Amino acid sequence: MYSRKVIIHYTADIVDQPIVHRLVKDYDLAFNILKARILPKREGLLVLDLVGTKENFDRGIRYLKKSGVKVEPLSDRVTQNTDRCVHCGACIAFCSTGALYIDKKTMMVLFDAEKCNGCELCVTACPARAMEIDLF
pLDDT below 70 — which residues of the chain? Predict the structure, then answer.
């Protein structure tokens, strides 16, 4: 199975459309909502973990884009500012996905953006403000 975390930006004119339902029904994709901000008659945002075959995933993403939905990988919006990071490890205690971890050889905090779910707990936990998430 193929799995990717994506950010879906809705515009006000399509926020009331059953777009995620179509991903399940027409493209056989399972999803887990990691974060959502959807307001009636306004733009919205969903962070989804989509799971299915690679072919169905690609077809579903094409459908979303044709529908006027902006889609981008979550990993593009979450970064570790290595210039700010002091490698204290405070963020690791809050990272439930293992996206932040300590390299045992170098004792440096490393970040795997593909594992991140966008919860933003690391942002508040980091005393140096080295983690940056820009979902909007």
Answer: none
For 10-29, letters b (16+ CB in 10 Å) and e give beeeeeeeebbeebeeebeb
pLDDT of residue 17: 83
Q: Residue 80: what pLDDT?
A: 94
Q: Is the Cα torsion angle 110, 113, 116, 121 positive or negative in sign?
A: positive
Supply the pLDDT for residue 115. 92
Domains of the chain listed by start with CATH number:
2-74 (3.30.70.260), 77-133 (3.30.70.20)
Q: Is 128 exposed, middle or buried (0-12, 13-18, 19+ CB in 10 A)?
A: middle
